[in-house]
Amino acid sequence: MMTLKALLIFCLVSVAGLVYGNETKTGMPFSDSTYLEFRNLNYSSGNDPANLIDIFLPFQHSASTRMIVFVHGGFWSKGSKSQLPKVLIDVLVGQKGYAMASFNYHLVKDDANKFPIQIEDMKKAFAFLSQKGDSLGYDGNHFALLGASAGAHLALLYTYGHDTRKQISTVMDLFGPTDLTDSLVRQNNVVANVTINRFLGDSDPKARIARDASPIFFLNKNTGVPTLIIHGENDELVHIDQSIRLHKKLNDEGIKTQLITYPNEKHEISKSRMFDVFLKISKWLEEVY
For residue 251, what are the CA distances in angstroms to 160, 190, 218? Predict the structure, then answer.
């Protein structure tokens, strides 16, 4: 079980740390006091910084060590793999014995890197993680996905719509958008609409690409996996109805799910809630993974 001390440390880490972040420059494998680090590995051909990945392994790791993959947020246009909080690595890898990975993906900039290049990056990242399982020493066939905001959207979309090898065992969604055709995140929300338009390169919520980028439309009894959903009830960017509808559809399809909502919380859940948020994530992993 996670120690109370570790959980108290968790509550000091804001969700903003999952949405923004700074890149770390580290080269070859490095040994932390409680785990091994493999930073800035290139998961694709070439030397594109958008295709770098960090892997963290407990000292006692083997072919049965399960991997948790973090997908960073940032409006699909900012952020990096370094947004995975060190405290989260310390506990889940150093104390609980999971492997973890966090990767960069192409960010939308001006008219470049629009959807679906991010999903293509994810396919490459998981192919790389699968291949490296034997040589680095972890289970390269099963993964848990954890994402925040735009990262949660990508995690859900990859899981339900693009995981052709059925490697994702569970996905944990922190306030991610699930339906990019919905007026609650388009016409009725100026900031969200502008962000989505830039991501898709199309301002029409009825366009096919908006549906192709919406995880909820890919979810069915064959594609769904156990899904944890966490959302602030006063989220000003991603309306909570997005999570409520996803939770309902998961239930309708008979897929294990849990929806945790926090009254008065906005898009970046406050530090005062962090203790409970990370406790719920840890408990969920123990139950399903």
Answer: 15, 31, 15
- Residue 87: count other Cβ atoms within 10 Å of its Cβ: 18
> 288 vs 26, which has greater pLDDT?
288
Taking only the tens place, the pLDDT of each residue in 3-58 is 544 444 444 444 445 544 434 444 455 665 689 999 999 999 888 999 999 999 99
Residue with tokens 């570790």: 6
Structure tokens at 200: 């898709």
Contact 176, 18 (CB under 8 A): no
Pair of tokens at residue 105: 């993906």
What is the rounded CA–CA span in Å between residue 167 and residue 34?
27
Interatomic CA distance for residues 244 and 30, integer angstroms:
42
Mind giving me the DSSP string for 45-83? SS--GGGEEEEEEESS--TT--EEEEE--STTTS--GGG
Question: Is the sign of the CA dihedral 265, 268, 272, 278 positive or negative?
Answer: positive
Task: Domain count for the chain, please give it.
Answer: 1
Predicted TM-score of the model (pTM): 0.91
Domain ranges, residue 71: 4-288
Whichever domain contains 251, its CATH number is 3.40.50.1820
Q: Which amino acid is at 142?
A: H
225/244 Cα distance (integer angstroms): 17
For residue 248, CA distances in Å to 52, 60, 176, 242, 281 come to 36, 40, 15, 10, 20
Q: How far is CA 50 from CA 72, 76, 107, 118, in A?
A: 12, 12, 8, 10
Cα–Cα distance between 71 and 152 in angstroms, integer?
A: 7
pLDDT on residue 182: 97
Half-sphere exposure in the Cβ direction for 232 (13 Å, CA): 19
